[in-house]
Specification:
- The complex is a heterodimer of chains A (592) and B (181).
- Chain A has helices at 2-11, 19-30, 35-45, 49-58, 78-82, 85-96, 138-149, 183-191, 193-203, 215-224, 245-252, 254-268, 285-297, 328-335, 364-376, 378-382, 415-422, 469-483, 489-506, 512-528, 532-537, 539-547, 549-553, 572-578; strands at 70-75, 109-114, 126-128, 131-133, 168-170, 231-236, 272-277, 313-318, 359-363, 392-399, 405-410, 427-432, 438-441, 459-464.
- With 592 residues, chain A is an alpha/beta fold.
- Chain A folds into 5 domains: 2-58, no CATH class; 70-165, Glutaredoxin; 169-382, 3-Layer(aba) Sandwich (Rossmann fold), CATH 3.40.50; 392-467, Ubiquitin-like (UB roll); 470-553, de novo design (two linked rop proteins) (Up-down Bundle), CATH 1.20.1440.
- In chain B, 30% of the residues lie in helices and 20% in strands.
- Chain B contains 6 helices and 7 strands.
- The chains are: A alpha/beta (592), B alpha/beta (181).
């Protein structure tokens, strides 16, 4: 082990910023991060042992105790649950002979849940040793169980299990364009860098991650900041449940994304770029490396790009299972080899980002759009959309519809249009922008998707009339409690309390005061949390409580109060140990 | 204020009586207070059960066993206003530190496997209340109307809270009263 770790550290130039990459390699080899590895790395990277421990405990894909040689994770998104995930994971567990969350006694396999893996259009999905598996059925599960029990190496498993489809159903302005290989860089330098920035501004392009900050301004501020180095980062940590458009863009339009990054780097004056790829998209890693290699050969990256006297290169960094790293300052922390805890803002990353240098963090789709704008000009893009939301938006549609997949529309399109096109009927409501977005009811489908009405990062989850609102809220509140980074109390404690309170109501223990308590808790989390995660964690409850108060009310008992846990059951251990079963050894759930 | 005295009941559940001691730190202000309140069930009076017309119930400590549940329900039934007093009542506090260990391990360590234990056995007399597998804050078992934070809440907190209530005001604690460092 000592040699392995030493070589690993050496390959990574003993850089503490590469800690995630190093730990991913250790985890892959030993199925956990041994204590000895922590000590050795602390010494070689010159960082405290506790910092490494902190990183391991922070990220879902690192473990201090061994996982199985085959570590299987099943996506626990609402769309997976709707497709019968509970039954299938139980079937999986039974066939493998392992309990969910545990490692089988022989150490060969472990099984657990994971947050949405970005395959909602080909659910039920999961990961085996980090690689995506899709369309799980009982027969595919049988095949996996057989492979596991034979200890068949992953590269000998049927490729079909790992098949990931793009499912582009409706392409528009951007998806109709072919991948760009140098044309936008040439156009940029021919036109002039500041002239190209003007084109981007003219295009009205706003960040596609959901927040919608004007891209040109971000680049401009980053450029204007006085510094010896600047960075460009592509945020491909697509973790919002129900979003998978970046996966498709990176699979089929990677060249355009890299081209967009290169153009942005030229404008702001960066020589180094990173793409922070969510760990769940490990299956894209080699393909993206190959695209980068091709671009280096074609002099689209590297020194003196296309004889324009401009140097730039891109490094791919993989995440390790933390939703919060989609927040730009948490992402930067993660890139620096630390736990992904959002920074205080200001200063914003354009002033002080990666290694405290001016950094522009943009979404995958933003770079795709930017490359095309650099090539075709701002007018080309601004001709579409609304006055405040220019251009098109790429949506990931999943849930109850005939054709889940990728759809591109100009901004201003109505929700009803999307529903008609994807073949959704008997619709109860739609979750727009993922759990942190908005739930809209079926009398609101005339509303428009645009920053001025329904802003979205691209997640569009459809629920039909057979679905229960509270099941959805239940899943989302558990998601946020799991993904809270733990830094600030309102979010760390609040999301757990929210989960408990929702559980209490969903399980039928709620009474009159519990809805008031729920609302108070929501306001507290929303108003006092440090970052966007906490500020939006109560949205599933707030948006559904506003629209369907009766659904919540119907769950309440007509008594003043009932405990949220089973009182008599919590005496069970004591009864068994004291060998008692007399009347005094029991408690009624509600006072007689 | 009316002439009829306000009835106050107090109890310590899974607590250390520290909140009661802090209440006694009201010192000479107790004399003023007693003009307006009378104590019903309380360790101060040794009255065993709440009268059905108590106005305020002050409860220290969390809920760790079946007896705590019964007492808490008696208070809820008989007190118009029920107040969780102190860290243990509000969060479970120190006794809730056992929540990270299984009840079985706790009992085994205390009564069977611990160093110096003679005649090892888990107590099983029917007179003894059984332990809940987790220690709970009060509001997880009954509806609580007010919370007085602190470990313990200072005498000033009790004074401000009770005088507000007696004056018919919505009780509110100034920042200094809930600022602990």
């Amino acid at each position: 082990m000592q040699n392995f770790i030493r070589n690993l550290a050496q390959e990574n130039d003993f850089q503490a910023t590469r800690l995630l990459k190093i730990l991913r390699a250790v985890q892959a080899r030993y199925f956990y991060i041994p204590k000895q590895a922590i000590e050795q790395l602390a010494e070689m990277l010159h960082i405290p042992r506790t910092q490494i421990q902190n990183v391991i405990e922070f990220y879902s894909f690192f473990h201090l105790e061994p996982r199985g040689q085959f570590d299987i994770l099943i996506s626990d998104s609402i769309t997976d649950l709707m497709l019968g995930k509970e039954e299938l994971i139980n079937y999986f567990a039974e066939k493998l002979g392992v309990k969910i969350g545990e490692v089988r006694a022989d150490g060969v396999v472990s099984l657990n849940n994971t947050s949405c893996s970005g395959m909602c259009d080909q659910s039920l999905a999961g990961l085996v040793n980090g690689y995506a598996i899709t369309n799980l059925t009982k027969s595919r599960i049988d095949e996996i169980v057989e492979n596991v029990n034979k200890k068949l190496p992953l590269d000998q498993w049927s490729r079909d299990l790992f098949d990931v489809q793009d499912n582009i159903i409706k392409s528009g302005l951007l998806l109709n364009e072919t991948p760009i290989k140098g044309e936008a860089i040439n156009a940029t330098f021919a036109r002039g860098l500041m002239e190209t920035l003007n084109e981007v501004e003219k295009s009205g392009l706003r960040g596609r991650g959901g927040a919608g900050y004007t891209t040109a301004w971000k680049w401009k501020f980053c450029h204007e900041e006085n510094a010896d180095q600047r960075y460009i980062i592509c945020n491909a940590d697509e973790g919002e449940p129900g979003t998978f458009k970046d996966r498709v863009i990176l699979n089929s339009y990677a060249d355009s994304v890299f081209e967009g990054m290169t153009v942005a780097a030229a404008i702001i004056g960066a020589t180094q770029g990173f793409i922070y790829l969510r760990g769940e998209y490990l299956h894209l890693y080699e393909k993206l490396e190959a695209v980068l290699a091709e671009r280096r050969t074609a002099n689209l990256l590297g020194k003196n790009i296309l004889q324009n006297g401009f140097d730039f290169d891109i490094e791919i960094c993989l995440g390790a299972g933390a939703y919060i790293c989609g927040e730009e300052s948490a992402l930067i922390e993660s890139l620096e080899g630390k736990a992904g805890i959002p920074r205080n803002r200001p200063p914003y990353p354009v002033v002080s980002g990666y290694l405290n240098k001016p950094t522009s963090v943009n979404n995958v789709e933003t770079f795709l759009a930017a490359a095309n704008i650099a090539l075709h000009g701002g007018e080309w893009f601004a001709a579409f959309g609304t006055s405040k939301s220019k251009g098109t938006k790429i949506h990931s549609i999943s849930g109850d519809c005939a054709k889940p997949g990728i759809y591109e529309y100009p901004f201003g399109v109505t929700v009803q249009t999307l529903l008609d096109d994807c073949g959704a009927s008997e619709v109860l409501g739609v979750q727009i922008g993922g759990p942190s977005g908005t739930f809209i009811a079926n009398n609101e489908f005339k509303r428009k998707i645009a920053f001025e009405d329904l802003a979205t990062g691209g997640s569009f989850i459809i629920f039909n009339n057979s679905r229960n609102i509270l099941d959805i809220v239940h899943n989302f509140s558990h998601f946020f409690a799991h993904e809270s980074c733990g830094f600030c109390t309102p979010c760390r404690v609040g999301t757990s309390l929210l989960k408990k309170q929702v559980d209490k109501i969903v399980e039928g223990h709620g009474s009159a005061g519990d809805i008031v308590a729920l609302e108070e808790l929501c306001q507290l989390i929303k108003n006092y949390s440090h970052c966007g995660l906490g500020q939006t964690a109560a949205n599933p409850v707030l948006t559904t409580l506003e629209r369907y108060p009766e659904v919540y009310q119907n769950m309440l008992k007509k008594i003043s109060y009932e405990p949220g846990f089973d009182l008599d059951k919590s005496l069970e251990t004591a009864r068994r140990l004291a060998n008692r079963d007399d009347a005094a050894a029991h408690l009624a759930q509600v006072e007689e | 204020m009316t002439n009829k005295k306000v009835k106050v009941a107090t109890v310590s559940l899974a607590g250390c009586f520290g909140c009661h001691m802090s209440f006694l730190d009201l010192d000479e202000r107790l004399v003023d207070l007693i003009e307006h309140i009378e104590f019903d069930r309380s360790p101060l009076t040794d009255i065993e059960h709440c009268s059905p017309d108590c106005d305020i119930g002050l409860i220290e400590g969390g809920v760790c066993n079946s007896e705590n549940v019964h007492v808490l329900r008696e208070f809820r039934k008989n007190c118009k206003i029920l107040v969780a007093v102190g860290a243990c009542a509000i969060n479970g506090g120190l006794p809730a530190m056992r929540n990270h260990i299984s009840l079985e391990d706790c009992l085994n360590e205390a009564y069977r496997d611990g160093i110096g234990v003679e005649n090892p056995q888990i107590p099983n007399d029917v007179e003894l209340p059984l332990l809940l597998d987790k220690v709970h804050p009060l509001h997880e078992v009954v509806k609580i109307d007010y919370f007085l934070p602190g470990c313990p809440p200072s005498a000033d907190v009790f004074w401000k809270f009770l005088t507000d209530l007696l004056a018919g005001r919505e009780p509110s604690l100034d920042y200094e009263l809930v600022h602990f460092d």
